[in-house]
Specification:
6 helices; Rossmann fold; 4-stranded mixed beta sheet
Length: 211
């Protein structure tokens, strides 16, 4: 069972609907035991990093996520959920994250003609072979709403980027069973469904392997 972590910091309806369009049954829970027992996790989120981490800690979900990940369960972070995978963020002060992927969350730096927050459709460029983008052509557009981005300590963890400011900006990460996307796949039409489908396929292949 795929469990969508209900951290109270996301609108879960569109995420649930996206998985249902793929024919997948998902569960929504803020119960740590349910999170630990899941076959895979999805961590959506919107808003500020510090608020997001506080919401997870208050419910014991940070420890539950760590336990599930250490047991090899796949996790997909979406938008703020991806940022929470990092070690820390500089948004409104320094805040400690889940620390599942080495790196920091830093503010976007725009160039003339660009705005922060970055809201709208951006062309995404896969930067290395990956699970999430196996069906995605370079330059496919996805929908973004963000003011901060993931600065990976190890660039091997970065799997896709957009052009923003004066340097490529990482918008997707993968490290073993840990995955994250800065964009909203649930709002990115067929391209977004393709990314979610790749995640689901990866989960099922893992289950078949275990069986």
């Amino acid at each position: 069972m795929i469990v969508i972590v209900d951290s109270k910091i996301a609108n879960l309806g569109s995420v649930i609907a996206a998985f249902r369009r793929l024919g997948e049954t998902v569960s929504v829970s803020d119960d740590p035991d349910t999170v630990v027992a899941a076959d895979a996790l999805v961590l959506p989120g919107v808003g500020a990093f510090g608020d997001g981490m506080e919401s997870l800690r208050r419910r014991g979900l940070d420890l539950a996520i760590h336990s599930a990940v250490q047991a090899g369960k796949p996790i997909l972070g979406i938008c703020l959920g991806m940022q929470l995978l990092a070690e820390e963020s500089e948004e409104f002060g320094v805040h400690e994250g889940l620390g599942l992927i080495p790196g920091r969350i830093v503010k976007l730096v725009s160039k003339p003609g660009e705005r922060v927050p970055n809201i709208g459709w951006c062309d995404v460029r896969p930067t290395r072979p990956s699970v999430l983008f196996r069906q995605t052509s370079s330059g496919t557009a996805f929908y973004f709403v963000h003011s901060y981005h993931f600065l990976c300590a190890d660039q091997n963890d970065a799997v896709a980027a957009i052009d923003f400011g004066h340097a490529p900006v990482t918008v997707a990460v993968e490290r073993k069973n840990i995955f994250g996307v800065q964009f909203h796949p649930e709002k990115s039409q067929d391209a977004g469904l393709g990314v979610l489908e790749s995640f689901v396929t990866h989960i099922k292949k893992g289950a078949d392997h275990v069986a």
